[in-house]
Amino acid sequence: MKKILFVLMLMGFYGNAQTIHQVCISEVLSSGACGANALGIFVPGNLTIQVGDQIQFTTYFVQLGGYSGTHDIQFTGSPANNVMLPISTNILSPITTVTTPPFTTPGTFNMFCANQSHCEIAELVSGLSCTGYSVTVVGNQPPCDVDADFQASATTVCQGDTVFLTNASQNANVYQWSLDNTIFSNDPNPFVILTDEGSFDLKLVAGDGTCEDSLSISLTVNQTPTANIAIQPSNELTIGQELTVSFTPDNFASNATFEWDFCDGPTAAHTNDFTISWNQEGTFCLCVTIDNQNGCILEQCHPEAINVSDEPTNSLEESLKNTIMIFPNPSNGNIQLKNIPDGAESIVLFDMNGKRISASETWSNGNLDLQIKDKGVFVLTILDKSGAQMFSERIIVK
Questions:
Q1: Mean pLDDT within 172-189
Q2: 314-397: which CATH number, 3.40.50, 3.30.1330, 3.90.320, 2.60.40?
Q3: Span 150-222: which CATH code?
Q4: Which of 140, 271, 277, 383 has its CA 20 to 30 A from that of 226?
C-alpha cells in the first residue's frame, strides 16, 4: 500500500512577482523526500496564489512494485490548469515533474486527484482525503492583448448574395464566426451565403488560447424578387398571331418597377399575364427586369426565342423545328443543340443581312461555341451533305 505526501515551497522569479509553487508528491517509504514533517495528501491544503502564478508538481520513485500510471490533478472551475503527472517506476529516473499553465482568472478552485484507484489507496493508508482542498487565486486578471477585427465585403446585400470576410485580428490564432449565435466557421477568412431576408448579427470571437476578444456587426439582407415566365401556344408564331405570356412575380415590393424587353425596341411594364403579337417577321425575346428599389434586381428571360414568320414553314422544316432543341436562346454565344438529325453535315451562322459569319462541321455532344463577339440576332442553319438547308432558327446573342 502507498501513502502520498504533498509539501509546498515557493520559488520567485526575478523581475516580475510571478511565482511557481512547488508541490511535492511522495509515497510513505520515501519519507524525508518532501521534508521531515510532511504529512497528508495536500499540504498545506488550501493554497493562496497570485494571478499569473503556476504550480509545479514533483513525484518520486514508487518503491512498491506493481504500480504505474499518472496523477490526474484537476482544478474544478479552471480546467485550463489541469495537468497529468506521470509516476516513475524507473529507479534510474525516479523524479518526474509537470507545471500548470499560469492561473489567469481570479477565484477559488477545488484541487483534487482524479485518479480514483490511486487516491482510494492513499486515503486508506493515510486516513486523509484527496478532496476538500482548494487553490485561491487573488489579484487582477492580466490584460488581454487580443484585438478582434475584420471587414465584410458588404453589409447590405440581397437574398442569395455571398459576403466575404477578411480577418484583421491582432495577436490571435483561434477564430469562431457566428450568425445570430449560430457558428458557421472557424476559418480565419471565411464567407457566408445569406438566403433569408432580415437583419442579422455577424460576430467574430478571436483568441490566443488564454484570452479572447469579440467584434460584431449588423448585416441587412434585402428581399430579392423572383418570377416565372411561361408562354402559349408556342415560340413559333405568324405575323399578327397572339402569344399569351403567363407571368408570376413573387417577393416584390409595393414600389417595385417592371420593365419588359421584347428585343424589338419598345419596352412595357406588365405586372401580370398579358398577350403580345408582332406585325413583322423576326426573332424576338421575352425578358423582364424587376427592380425592388432596395438594390435587389432580377433580370430574367424566357429560355426560348420567339420566331415570327409570314407563313408556316414547309413540313420537313416544321417537323425538325419540333424536334431540334437549341438552348439557351438568348445566349452569350455558347449554345447546345439536341436531336440533330442524321445527315447533318455542317452548321452555318448568318447575320440578318445574309452574310455568312461562321461554320462548323464538328460539335461535341451538341455543344457549340458560335464564336460571336457582337450582340444581335443571327440565323443558325443546318445543311446536309449536298449543302441543302435542313433547318434554320433565329438566335439571339446578348
A1: 95
A2: 2.60.40
A3: 2.60.40.10
A4: 277
